[in-house]
Amino acid sequence: MTAEVLTPARRQSVLATLRSPRRLRTEVLAGLVVALALIPEAISFSIIAGVDPRVGLFASFTMAVTIAIVGGRPAMISAATGAVALVVAPLVASHGLDHLIAAVLLAGVIQIVLGALGVARLMRFIPRSVMVGFVNALAILIFTAQLPHLLGVPWLVYPLVAAGLAIIVGLPRLTSAIPSPLVAIVLLTAVTLAVGFAVPDVGDEGELPDSLPTLFFPDVPLTWDTISVIAPYAFTMALVGLLESLMTAKFVDDLTDTHSDKTREATGQGIANIVTGLFGGMGGCAMIGQTMINVKESRARTRISTFLAGLFLLILVVGLGDIVALIPMAALVAVMIMVSVGTLDWHSVNPKTLRRMPKSETAVMVATVVVTVATHNLAYGVIVGVLTAMVLFARRVAHVTEVVEVADPEPGTRVYAVRGELFFASSNDLVYQFDYAGDPDDVVIDMSEAHIWDASTVATLDAITTKYAAKGKTATIVGLDGHSAERHRRLSGRLGGEG
After folding, report:
1. Distances (CA, A) of 400 to 13, 305, 450
2. Reduced to 3 states, what is the DSSP secondary structure of residue 257?
3. Which of 305, 320, 417, 418 could bond 300 through an S-S bridge, CB–CB 3.0 to 4.6 Å?
4. pLDDT exceeds cutoff 50 at 324
């Protein structure tokens, strides 16, 4: 059965969804599945950060509800994340919860400022190979995060996980009326309770809260000393959160063939973190695993599912905590394994694709994956991937510049034609391409098919003319286009300390 095809405008229309019982049911059930999957994740991230499970659970609730209203990417899920937990763990260990909340609030302010400054526009400089590496690394991290639930556990866990996988894969072939992950969770829970299987459950992950979140103001002195302590963590949290959120938003854009407002998403992440901090949450950002459950597995497309994911999370852990605690972890592990399988870009690792793809593109993807998986930090992986892409691109472009001698010049004159884009990488070897000793007294360097991009190139051209002058010869540069001529006029002769 094929999924309902929606135009981009309708996909993001909350009102249209509210008027359609079928689509509204999809959004509601998607939100419920995501909420169930968020519970063990939020608890485990709280443990990583060194805080009470309630801090992570309440953060997931407030992040999801707030970003559903102020975010720029409909159907994307934001909550407490492992990347943020890794960033703030040292701060919690050294200064405690109050400094963590202060850092979350400051990170939210920084994200709003970065959003206003247009940081989202930097996404255009992230190559496709980095995006592919980002997605593949996430798939690996999602899968490896399930391994602790599969090692050293009762043998009954394995058939339960296998049954869950079979339901998630097989049910959509019969009907898509109800998300298959939700069916797997309900059926496996019912079987486990009915038969009395002794297997790990959600309750074993940590204590669930029994009260609603309340306003929380960190008890820290408003001094420069406090700011100096929290600012590095807040800035790192802001950058990591924005990078993961904007990359995930771009991924969902491609997955749903829709466009989202990245600037609004950046600002929305800041607002959501401020709200989260005011309710004592640990902060967070977009989660690709839960977003995949929402968008790909459950076919949600609007803010309704994101809002309900947060609302259901609160209802489940506060109002129905005793029941939720009985859900076997095997059911949630099966869901997340399928999410990892669906997240991986299998085409990118197909041997045929790898043989066809330029080695530089594959190297960028591999660098992104390796660093991300090794550090468990998506920001590090993306940064290394982008830097690798820049270096390889510069090396490749450096070899497309050429200097050729023009035939039949005027007597006593030699004409060289320079072709290509000239910048620091491609112009470094330019100075060695001329015969200073053997050339006649008059040399013409024709730049009609070249373009000057930086001061390094102007300095190289100055070095060339200076070498000819030292030999008592004259080198004339001609054919510069408008921008190149202006850059050359402004900088020539002023890069060696003369002016």
Report:
1. 49, 50, 11
2. coil
3. 305
4. yes
**3-state SS, residue 436:** coil
Taking the C-alpha atoms of residue 297 and residue 299, their distance in angstroms, rounded to an integer, is: 6
**For residue 86, how far is the Cα from the chain centroid?**
16
pLDDT-derived band at 10 (thresholds 50, 70, 90) equals very low
The strand pair at 474-478 and 413-422 is best described as unpaired
331 contacts 160 by C-beta, under 8 angstroms: yes
423 with 455: CB under 8 angstroms? Answer: no
Strand segments, DSSP code E, in 152-296 are 285-286
pLDDT of 5 reads: 41
pLDDT bin (cut points 50, 70, 90) of residue 496 is low
CA distance 228 to 17: 47
Q: What number of other Cβ atoms are within 10 A of residue 67's Cβ?
A: 31
Beta bridge partners, 418, equal 403
Q: Count the helix, strand and coil residues of the chain and give each as a percent rounded to the nearest 5.
A: 65, 5, 25
Helices (H) and strands (E) in the chain, counts: 20, 6
pLDDT given for residue 4 in this prediction: 40
Segment 107-145, tens digit of pLDDT: 999 999 999 998 888 777 788 899 899 889 888 988 888
Residue type, 38: L
List of residues 6+ apart from 350 with CB closer than 8 A: none
- Cα–Cα dist 366/372, whole Å: 10
What is the rounded CA–CA span in Å between residue 306 and residue 276?
16
Q: Cα torsion at 122, 381, 285, 54 (round to 10°)?
A: -160
User: Which token pair is 131?
Assistant: 């995006």
Burial degree of 124 (CB within 10 A; 0-12, 13-18, 19+): exposed
381: left (phi over 0), alpha (psi -120 to 50) or beta: alpha
Strands (E), 204-353: 285-286
**218: helix, strand or coil:** coil
Burial of residue 175, with CB atoms counted within 10 A of its CB: 0-12 exposed, 13-18 middle, 19 or more buried: exposed
Helix (H, G, I), strand (E, B) or coil at 406: strand
Structure-token pair, residue 69: 């209203």
Please state, in angstroms and rounded to a whole number, the distance separating the CA atoms of residues 213 and 281: 9
Q: Determine contact, residues 319/325, Cβ cutoff 8 Å.
A: no
The answer to whether 422 and 398 have CB atoms below 8 angstroms apart is: no
CB–CB of 50/89 below 8 Å? yes
